[in-house]
């Protein structure tokens, strides 16, 4: 299956059934692959540096429960990776939400623990990762709105509908506008021709 500039969301052999909302955008592949790669890298680094990870967890929780907590955390991370793989394979943007939200929750928890244990360097690191995953979740939401808008029938929303004129909620409109502004800032720029 080729995903290119001409690919339409929801087209191809794994297209959504008729009547189902098409919310998968081709850039969701990039989001999913990033989440999968991040999770696999986290699991691999934990396996390679188990002693270091155990020391880090002991700094937060003490030596008694550290091994159990680390094993549980890595099992949850493995489930998050499997969830992201399922989202990419099934082309369902909603299946990418639990992995991204799971890592957000993990980094938020470690940020709180950093405050209580006075690990300010760890706090900065965990807040940076938390912010990155918040942006990733917002990006995925905006891409879903963009795909939904592309497949929506044109025309005004019915009276009393919480949806706007494009059939999107105000949060979807906001996310879509933010993505469009970012694309306009980073998109290709035309240079004036220099003629001699």
Roughly what fraction of the amino acids lie in strands? under 5%
Strand/helix succession? HHHHHH
- Which stretches are low in confidence, meaning pLDDT under 50 for 5 or more residues running? 1-20
Average pLDDT works out at: 80
Termini, distance in Å? 46 Å
**Which oligomeric form is depicted?**
single chain
Shape: elongated
Give an account of the 3D structure.
22% of the residues are buried. The chain is built from 6 helices and no strands. The protein starts with 27 loop residues before the first helix and ends in a 10-residue tail after the last helix. The chain is mainly α and 196 residues long.
Features:
196 residues, mainly alpha, 65% helix, elongated
Task: Give a concise summary.
With 196 residues, this protein is mostly helical. It has helices spanning 28-48, 50-61, 66-90, 97-117, 120-151, 170-186.
What layout of secondary structure does this protein have?
Elements: H1 28-48, H2 50-61, H3 66-90, H4 97-117, H5 120-151, H6 170-186
Helix pairs in contact: 1-3, 2-3, 3-4, 4-5, 5-6
């Amino acid at each position: 299956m080729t995903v290119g500039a001409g690919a339409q969301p929801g087209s191809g052999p794994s297209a959504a059934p008729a009547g189902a909302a098409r919310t998968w955008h081709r850039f969701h592949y990039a989001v999913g692959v990033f989440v999968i790669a991040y999770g696999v890298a986290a699991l691999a680094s934990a396996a390679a540096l188990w002693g270091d990870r155990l020391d880090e967890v002991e700094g937060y929780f003490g030596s008694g429960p550290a091994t159990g907590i680390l094993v549980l955390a890595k099992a949850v991370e493995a489930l998050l990776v499997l969830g992201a793989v399922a989202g990419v394979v099934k082309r369902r943007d909603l299946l990418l939400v639990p992995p991204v939200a799971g890592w957000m929750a993990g980094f938020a928890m470690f940020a709180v623990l950093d405050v209580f244990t006075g690990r300010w360097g760890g706090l900065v690191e965990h807040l940076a990762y938390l912010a990155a995953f918040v942006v990733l979740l917002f990006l995925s939401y905006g891409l879903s709105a963009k795909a939904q808008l592309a497949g929506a029938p044109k025309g005004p929303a019915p009276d009393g509908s919480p949806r706007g004129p494009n059939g999107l909620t105000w949060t979807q409109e906001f996310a879509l506008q933010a993505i469009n502004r970012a694309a306009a800032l980073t998109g290709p720029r035309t240079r004036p021709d220099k003629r001699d």
